[in-house]
Each structure stands twice: as C-alpha cells, then as structure tokens.
Amino acid sequence: MPLHIVRNDITKMKVDAIVNAANSSLLGGGGVDGCIHRAAGPELLAECEKLGGCETGNAKITGAGKLPCKYVIHAVGPRWRDGKHGERDKLISCYRTSLKLSKDNNCESLAFPLISSGIYGYPKDQALKVAIDTISDFLLENEMTVYIVIFDRKAYQISSKLFADIAEYIDENYVDEHTDDRSDRIRRLNAIQEIDFSCDAAICEEDEADELLAFPMMAESKMLTLDDALEQIDESFSEMLLRKIDEKGMTDAQCYKKANIDRKLFSKIRSDKLYKPSKPTVIAFAIALELPLEETKDMLMKAGFALSHSNKFDIIVEFFISQGKYNVFEINEALFAFDQSLLGA
User: Fold this and answer.
1) Known catalytic residue at 33
2) Were 256 and a residue from 3, 186, 225, 266 both cysteine, which residue would form a disulfide, CB within 3.0 to 4.6 Å?
3) Nearest to residue 80, comparing CAs of 72, 68, 70, 88?
4) In what order do the strands lie in the sheet containing 17-22?
C-alpha cells in the first residue's frame, strides 16, 4: 500500500518494476513504449526478441536494461473500437496480469502508465476508472505500493459529469478567505464587542460569587496541578480512530487499506495515542470508516484540524461525503484532477 497518482516520466521512476504499454510484437513502438525502449537501451529489445510476442490482454516480464528499476512488465492493451468488443475485459486483464507478475517476482513497488489511453484510443476517463478499480481491488488483498504515472495533464481525465458536478459544488461553496468588504468587517467587529461585553459581565458576576466562597474551598481549587489538567483531556485522534474501527466491526488491515494508508504508518498511530497525523491522513481514515460529515469534523478536531470553505481540497472532500461516496481511490482521482493533495500516505 498505497496507490499514488503522480506526474512524472515513467522511465525515471525508482521502483521495482514499471509497466510498458507495449504492442503485441514487444519490439518497441511509439508513445510510452518507444520512450521505455530508448531509455532502457538495446538490452531490453534483445530480451524482448526472445519472448515471441504477447497476446492482447496479457503481459510478460523482462529485465530493465539501463532503467533505474529491476523489471519491465510489457502489457498489451486493447485498441478501442466502440467498447462492445471486449475492450474493458482485456484492459482489466492487462492490469491484473501485470500486478500478478509483479507479486510473483517479489516486487514491493510498481508503476503503471494509463494503458491503451494514447494511440490505442481508449477513452481516458474510462481507462483511468479501469486502472483505479483494478489496482485498488488488488491492494485490498496485497501489500504493495503502486503508482499511476501521468506524463502531462492531457493524459489524465476523469468523467466530464463528475468534474462538472464538483466544479459546480466548489463554485457554490467556495469562500475566498481574502474577500473582506467593509460591511463584513463592521459586522464582525460589533459581534466581537458584544462578546467582550458579555464576558466582562460574566467575570464580574464570578468575582462577586468568589467572595462568598469559603477559604478552604478556594485553597483546594488552587491545588489543581498540570497533571490533573492533562488527565481531563478528551480522547485523542488515535483513541477515537481505534474506537471507531471497533464500532464498525472492521479489522485494522481492512481500515488502513480502505484508507490508502501504509501499514507502517498505521502501526505508529496505534502505538502512540498522542500521534499527530496529517490532515489528509485523518480524512482518509474518516472516509474508510464512512463517517458522516459531523463525525468527520469531530475526528479532524481531535487532530487539530477543521474543514474550511476557503480550501478547495476540503470542499471536494465534503462533496463526496455529502453524496455518501466513500471510495478513497475515486476521491483521489478527483483531487488529482483539481490539483489538490491526495488522501492517504
């Protein structure tokens, strides 16, 4: 774990294996295929020549030549015709076969391009969904770090309807934190003055009441130590997380995998009740536990965070929670599309 979406050149990824979007001859071609062969050098082609090609939907593994990885997995994706000729099943098979080859060769990290989404014409939003769904299903049962590597923005596209829905939700809820006209400032100033006046009145009443208290009681109240105060602190983020996992009847592994969180990070959280996580980590666990918005805000507060309508990341997360959509991988698709940080480790 987990699944990352990154912008990079796949030939520069320092992982155990990269996947090549190959053609059936395995002898190199255009696009990603050509880039990988050029970066790997003639050793890769010499090894591919011995494989006798590969069928669509299947994959074969070789060494990596001059690349910084150990292996290249050559996956032959389908050419898009109309979606009615088994293209989706063949694309799923590419990912599953590549993941299995990676696991069989003891790889701990693997990088994919978006197979078939270039010159093979597979619609980019559908190619992305197949990739996310197939890889995330694998990661729920296996420990591995997987990357989907996007070379440029043109190579990445989520559903146009989803993008439009999120964009509309952002437009309706986004508040520019720097927008501050004179009437707003006056209204806030008046509110603060009213609060100060109320507090002053309350303090006066408390002072009068204190004079009526017996001296022994005053002395006892002053004996409250720092340790006593610390013992009154509410449950921490870690304690709330573990409690919620138990309440949901989940195992630890089920939770951290659904959250797209690394096992080692979860172990740190479990062993330290005062662990301070990042905001994306907190939200990832709230998503994995399928917490409603108010409970998500409560979990964030335990870690010292809050949701804000002046933050597009927060608004996008709120959009999915309000829709009852709790797939962390789908949320990350959208966050990446809007140039936001991703959930998980």
Assistant:
1) yes
2) 266
3) 88
4) 3-7, 145-150, 109-112, 17-22, 71-76, 59-63
Instruction: Please give the structure tokens belonging to residue 202.
Output: 């309350």
**Could you identify the residue written with the tokens 């009145």?**
201
- Burial of 191-220, coded b for 16+ CB within 10 Å and e otherwise, reads eeeeeeeeeeeeeeeeeeeeeeeeeeeeee
Type of residue at 265? L
What are the DSSP calls for 250-287, one per residue?
--HHHHHHHTT--HHHHHHHHH-TT----HHHHHHHHH
Q: What distance in Å separates the CA atoms of residue 289 and residue 256, rounded to the nearest whole number?
A: 10
- The CA distance from 334 to 340, in Å, is 9
What's the token pair of residue 162? Answer: 């989803």
Q: How much is the pLDDT for 31?
A: 87
Q: Where are the alpha helices (DSSP H) in 1-86?
A: 31-40, 42-48
Give the distance from CA 172 to its chain's centroid: 24
157 compared with 149, residue with greater pLDDT: 149
Peptide bond into 216 cis (omega under 30): no
**Whole-Å CA distances, 123 to 83, 118, 162, 232:** 10, 9, 15, 56
Query: Rounded CA gap, 32 and 151, in Å?
Result: 10
Model confidence at 175: pLDDT above 50:
yes
Q: What is the mean pLDDT of residues 241-257?
A: 96
Per-residue tokens: 333: 């698709």
- Whole-angstrom Cα distance, residue 298 to residue 240? 9
Q: Which positions ≥6 away from 165 have C-beta within 8 Å?
A: 319
> Tens digit of pLDDT for each residue in 202-227?
444 555 445 444 444 444 444 556 55
Query: How far is residue 121's CA from residue 56's CA, in Å, rounded to a whole number?
Result: 15
CA gap 67, 14 in Å, rounded: 9
Q: Which of 9, 16, 33, 137 is catalytic?
A: 33
